[in-house]
Amino acid sequence: MDLKSKLQLYKTNQTVKTERAKESYEAVNEALQGVSRCNGYGSYLLVENIYPDSYLHGGYSLGEAASVNMKCLKRICGELDEHMQISDFVFIDTETTGLSGGVGTVAFLIGAGFFDKDTFILRQYFMRDYDEELAVLNDLNSLLAAKKGLITFNGKGFDWNLLQTRFTFNRIRPALAHPVHVDLLFPSRRIWKLKLESCRLASLEENILGETRVDDIPGAQIPGIYFKFLQDRDTSEVKRVIKHNEL
């Protein structure tokens, strides 16, 4: 086979692979109830939900969180600027390919929520494959550019550190290089450590908010579920991961 024929065969094979990938992505989008989002760096799956401020999580509405007294929050969290509003913050949570962090760990699902007037908008950025990371991070960075701070649970110890590493790895300058970062893990421990056996997020939800997670997936299983998805494109367990991240 001459060089011209080899190049033509390679081109044909790449076209077939591209078409198969598109079909696979369309099936994933439909199964996970999301849409493909494209930018100058590629595409990814976006799942977006909008909740009214009357939406209840346990015994409390989102509107109660939106009307939190910032002066009181500053007393609990320290670094907060009391003149900021809750709409200035992005709530961040990640699902990753490893639980110990490190350069090789990737956030394949990033949940980013924020208040907008009388609604709470949750955007979940999902990588259908590793080559979608750059597109995900750039769109996430665009959202962060419109905000002033972060609210996380153990984000200082894990989520935000990991995202900063991924921004650096992909040569992206974070829009929030030094954000006001409210990590709710630490004030939760100070307030409830003597009352509760555990200050894990699920424990706080159940004992403080009155919300019990049903059929929630253990965090330790999540990396393996994503690896399996990359192999067989089975979304059945990925749906549970997305729900876990939403909660």
General description of the model:
The protein is an alpha+beta fold and 247 residues long. It has one domain (34-186, 214-246): Nucleotidyltransferase, domain 5 (2-Layer Sandwich). The chain has helices at residues 3-31, 62-66, 70-77, 133-145, 155-169, 185-192, 201-209, 222-232, 236-246; strands at residues 35-39, 42-52, 56-57, 60-61, 89-96, 107-116, 119-126, 149-152, 180-183. The chain is globular, with a radius of gyration of 20 Å. The strands form two sheets. A seven-stranded mixed beta sheet has the order 1-2-7-6-5-8-9, sandwiched between helices. It has a two-stranded antiparallel sheet with strand order 3-4.
CATH class: Alpha Beta
Task: Please tell me the CATH architecture by its name.
Answer: 2-Layer Sandwich
Contiguous low-pLDDT stretches (5 residues minimum) are 9-19
Strand content: 15-25%
Strand order of the largest sheet: 1-2-7-6-5-8-9
The succession of helices and strands, N to C, reads HEEEEHHEEEHEHEHHHH
- Report how far the terminal alpha carbons are from each other: 57 Å
How many DSSP-defined strands? 9
Gyration radius over CA: 20 Å
Q: Could you tell me the mean pLDDT?
A: 87
Our count of domains comes out at 1
CATH topology group: Nucleotidyltransferase, domain 5
Helix content: 40-55%
SS element count, helices:
9
Molecular shape: globular
Structural class: alpha+beta
Please outline the major beta sheet: 7 strands, mixed
